[in-house]
Amino acid sequence: xxxxxxxxxxxxxxxxxxxxxxxxxxxxxxxxxxxxxxxxxxxxxxxxxxxxxxxxxxxxxxxxxxxxxxxxxxxxxxxxxxxxxxxxxxxxxxxxxxxxxxxxxxxxxxxxxxxxxxxxxxxxxxxxxxxxxxxxxxxxxxxxxxxxxxxxxxxxxxxxxxxxxxxxxxxxxxxxxxxxxxxxxxxxxxxxxxxxx
Length: 197
Description:
By secondary structure, the protein is mainly α.
């Protein structure tokens, strides 16, 4: 069967839709959507179940961003297609096929996409994310600051027209998905890591 960009995009959306946090929580009899913040990502898994399940969730969510982009890179060698595939992996996480088109915020999956498209920018984003978290204990603020800076990071470390466009779209998706967090941060009601949501 001939691999086309459409198949890669659909495969990316499908893989991105796999809700690792929900699956890992269900093994322990936990409905993640009804616990903590209700989010399906690693931060809520950490809050509700601890470090090991959170780490598994994080790895799964990162890989579902990395694997589709690497497949596109290997099969088609087209940077534009790689970017589109990466964006659909993130959209799959955000609007999961398996959760009635609901999902998470896409932070870990976005990191996975960046690792395949722009590794230096990915590392810089993770370092900035962790630095903000270590200073504030707000996971959401770490994501907002690090991904809000992503276009500048890509411009400085890996200047490419296609990658810059993808970085702006990733940043926009992250800001949209964190709209409620931004409101809570302004009000001072956003839970810190380790606090109950």
